[in-house]
Amino acid sequence: MPNKSRFLRVPVEPFAVTPDLAAGEMLARMEKISFQGRNLATARRIWEKMLGDDCTIFLGMAGALSAGGMRLVVAYLLEHRYVDCLVSTGANLYHDLHETRGRHHYVGSPRENDAALQADHIDRVYDTYASEDEFVDNDEWIAAFVMTLDRRPYTSREFLYRLGEHLWKETGRHGILTAAYRASVPIFCPAISDSSIGMGLSQARHRDSAAGLIDVIGDIIESANLVIRHPRTASVVLGGGTPKNFINQASVQAEFYDDRVGGHRYALQIVTDVPHFGGASGSSLEEAQSWGKLATDAEQVTVHADVTVVLPLLVSALTASAEQTIGAREPHRFDLSGSPMSMDGRAFPQSRFEARGK
Amino acid sequence: MPNKSRFLRVPVEPFAVTPDLAAGEMLARMEKISFQGRNLATARRIWEKMLGDDCTIFLGMAGALSAGGMRLVVAYLLEHRYVDCLVSTGANLYHDLHETRGRHHYVGSPRENDAALQADHIDRVYDTYASEDEFVDNDEWIAAFVMTLDRRPYTSREFLYRLGEHLWKETGRHGILTAAYRASVPIFCPAISDSSIGMGLSQARHRDSAAGLIDVIGDIIESANLVIRHPRTASVVLGGGTPKNFINQASVQAEFYDDRVGGHRYALQIVTDVPHFGGASGSSLEEAQSWGKLATDAEQVTVHADVTVVLPLLVSALTASAEQTIGAREPHRFDLSGSPMSMDGRAFPQSRFEARGK
Amino acid sequence: MPNKSRFLRVPVEPFAVTPDLAAGEMLARMEKISFQGRNLATARRIWEKMLGDDCTIFLGMAGALSAGGMRLVVAYLLEHRYVDCLVSTGANLYHDLHETRGRHHYVGSPRENDAALQADHIDRVYDTYASEDEFVDNDEWIAAFVMTLDRRPYTSREFLYRLGEHLWKETGRHGILTAAYRASVPIFCPAISDSSIGMGLSQARHRDSAAGLIDVIGDIIESANLVIRHPRTASVVLGGGTPKNFINQASVQAEFYDDRVGGHRYALQIVTDVPHFGGASGSSLEEAQSWGKLATDAEQVTVHADVTVVLPLLVSALTASAEQTIGAREPHRFDLSGSPMSMDGRAFPQSRFEARGK
Amino acid sequence: MPNKSRFLRVPVEPFAVTPDLAAGEMLARMEKISFQGRNLATARRIWEKMLGDDCTIFLGMAGALSAGGMRLVVAYLLEHRYVDCLVSTGANLYHDLHETRGRHHYVGSPRENDAALQADHIDRVYDTYASEDEFVDNDEWIAAFVMTLDRRPYTSREFLYRLGEHLWKETGRHGILTAAYRASVPIFCPAISDSSIGMGLSQARHRDSAAGLIDVIGDIIESANLVIRHPRTASVVLGGGTPKNFINQASVQAEFYDDRVGGHRYALQIVTDVPHFGGASGSSLEEAQSWGKLATDAEQVTVHADVTVVLPLLVSALTASAEQTIGAREPHRFDLSGSPMSMDGRAFPQSRFEARGK
Fold this sequence. Notes:
The structure is a homotetramer.
Chain A: H1 23-30, H2 35-52, E1 56-61, H3 66-79, E2 85-88, H4 90-100, E3 106-107, H5 114-119, E4 122-125, E5 128-131, H6 132-147, H7 156-171, H8 176-183, E6 187-188, H9 196-207, H10 216-229, E7 233-238, H11 241-257, E8 264-271, H12 285-290, E9 294-304, H13 307-321, H14 323-328, E10 334-335, E11 342-343, E12 346-347
Parallel strand pairs in A: 1-2, 1-7, 2-6, 7-8, 8-9
Antiparallel strand pairs in A: 3-5, 4-5, 10-11, 11-12
Helix pairs in contact in A: 1-2, 1-13, 2-13, 3-8, 3-13, 6-9, 7-8, 10-11
């Protein structure tokens, strides 16, 4: 066995146990193991590169992450600008609002009798409970807020900025919506009608037929303009769903109007779905390259894992090793108070793609 | 071993091979086997019960089912009123439109080089290809159609009815959108902005700032009114996603305004996601009962399988055994040409829930 | 769009509904759809090719397929020589024996209270029940049979042949073990000690320290000699597990002693595991090519599905379309009564690989 | 909302980010989140309880964990007696031997061309490579060692003890087999014939028909005697497979001979398989209670995750918080040099269950 194959270059290094190892070193040791452990370590490195490479970083968030205890991790990422734009399902924003309003989700069991829960007005999300009565109160709170808005269409982005503002002023509490408001990080919610936030909006409409109009098509334009204005982008996806596709769509739609756009430069996704059933949530990042959603030379990694198992470790490690990078980072500045929003001091055009090359 | 336990009542009967067995008998034999095979057989029986029990049946559709060859199965279900209302992702309607316009998806490989595909303008969906240039042409076709519409908000339901009408008049071809138009089956698309249909709408907006306004909040009201008008409902879910939740939300929102509503009476879902990661796509139907999305005494079954593997068999068997039931069925009549739509000759209220009990 | 890309050759053809469609035509229509539905249709074609191409076909069987109602499908495949050799987990053979002895598994529920089941001596396999008392009786029956055997090592292959013979003579009933006995199809059980058959063997040992000696290393030699004698092989794997690897190992071990062996020529697997966690059950057939377990030009397909959902359809279709091929097939003849077994009239060498080229 | 439901007792506490958080505190914070993150934190607590409660702890190990970089974690657990008995697949022991002999596995890619790998004699395990030539050399090394053994049946337990001894004496290197040898921790390998260790054994048999006889039925007796001798047991399962079932079988078989045995008192499993396909790898711990494999009041948890992603964190945290417990623990002492082995100074009976109550 004189000459080793070119394929045998970097040995797997078995993970060595050290009691109470810190997150940063843990992921450093996991870079040389295999399977999803290695992928998680790679995710940290790729995220660090995004931060050091003048990218606009999109964060997608699907699955019951807020109810499941991840909302302050996401808030931290927004506040410290580890990401620049959030795309979320409505449920995650609603469950965030629920806790920011001072209520709780509760530790439960996946094997409880659901008829008994229903009798007690308890809504179950796998192993987590919430009070339906408190949810009804949230819906009413949202409807009442919506009644204070102008009788005109709002993009989900503008609406959520106003919602975060209202929530912050009323509660002064930390969470996703309030952190995004305070850090001026835009939030898009493409499927807002498929959530209790949408239900609150519909209850305002019930009172006033001119209230509660959300312009989700306007969101497509604004999100694409974000890419056109600065075509160097990156994508961090938690859980798949509509946020994953919406982030990719922003790049595809932007490229239609500006040929400097060539797909995200970096991408990482943490998903539990698999590619072989054809759904978008589980689709591979290689597949995204065929569409031009991702540059063909992009650095990318997929971690096949439940977000609640890996995000605490990933972010604990990232915030350690990326400290200097994040200190040196000069993120784009957004002013979200207008319609349309502005970026680095210049507003996006009204109802138009910031067309350039095409 | 004299007295058998009460748990040992119905023996598993091993599946007996008969060459070229027909679908109906195949599922009949599968009722007494185990695991997902039994669940698939149960799904047929539950669907038959829905059809015989004066239910409004919602069909949810997520995952790349149209691109994957399932669009004429869905069109058949709409045309013959095996279901009464479709809730879909935008992608499934877009890929349907693509084929109805005479183009194709193509048999491909999941292991092709994606950079080569991108160079050839080929978009890949796992093992299936499509021409990006044809997609761009679809987007333009949609944008041109949108320009012909009134400059007012359309619910996705009304918009998709008009789109189906236009598509039928231009092509005369069979598909989901055209079958829904001809059979007056409403289609809701809560996440329409997260799809190429949304991209087409945004391109119309780019030309005229008053064009392309989709009122997804109005969809919440109209879908809930469908339930309020006839609270006996059932749910058939293919693949999870926003359609699954939107169908359940319609019931929850309706119950808020009418206490005769008590959740779907029957439910079946075919999903590949699992419950234990907490996401809605994989959530169990038991969990739905805690929320009141599903009646606590509802008959329900989950089939853990890829839709493309089981739907052909399920529908081939159902259409055989339910022939008489479907012949006797008198489905609700919808008039979708108005805003709002009407059901059984009576229009839903404008921008309001058809509130009754609360 | 004048010239189509070379990637766009074969259009997806949407599945067209015909009530009560027969299995053969159903899979024929599924060849042009996508995802796992297409893979299932491809599996039928590849199995047909195996049958027409002078291959020794190995069938692997893991997961609770016998308890789950698949045992007569497997028995059919052995009896009609759709396969030539079975590799199984012990549990599948044990549950087959249980039913062949006239007992049953029972239709149950995955949500039953397991403490209540334990109190009633009911063993649960997901949604299927069995009587623990009947299982204890089986163990004793096996132990008593073992006591009648010679006090010498038996390969699992020889032992299972004798067990099938005894079972046939006592019951005259159809099943996997009895069909294999009658059709002289060898069965290997590499993990026999991890099953209730192993427990029965250990109970014989408890009575006589010279009883119950199974020579699983001898199985490696005999299975490799099967490949060496006729290096053209194929693999049909249901569920992964030890059978999947053992079938591949037979080819790898054979190649070590005979360089005419070059991996299976055809392979199909129906698995629910996925490749990205690194386990053998979910490993891809491409990966198998790196090891030489599978020829690099082999025709192969993976169907990601529960076996109980797809095997009835696959076999119902195969037995229709392959009727002529199976009629013309001249399978290898085994005499399993000896130690070692013989193939086509010639015994394998005793305790040796039938070494040739190396 | 005056009185809270009894279901709403323990609030979910969102995970708070601290840069470079240590493992122990990370899992402490994860106890109050949801889904698999919470389950992982629970796994640490349950393992701690096992350690403090005079249990014999079985560790099961399946999937390519040694090749994937987990072998020194397992070796640590054996050396420091976080577990008392290992049940493993053959591949994990073989890959451990490979590295202990000074060779490596290598960081690779799941998308490499497998024909190119085969041409270079590289075997791929998902994203990890190994040299086939080095593997062939291992097989020969094992065969040569087997030739030095007595010409009598060895249980896999005794054989692996001798193999570990030989490996330690030749290499002096740390690994699973050598740590088990030095710490006198028994290893069982029920499916040894389905592995390259089995292949090495078969190659010794090829040279001498009396060599390489492994008595896997004897393993059943010895593993059950471990439980009979001290019926308080616990189970830690990594990845499912034959080890998972074999550990449970030991308890079931023991109970048959001694009615003081009542199933494991604690159980944790880290698996990627799911229950609903009926296979043993994914089966729930509730299901295990119906069989009596697990006491009905046992503390148990399932973590649905890839072992490589969670084991480093779990063990890093456990070894911190359980330091005192492990210091106070007085594990059972095994002497593995005999046939049969002895426990706490007293040998197990020869070829018999240590029957007592029945």
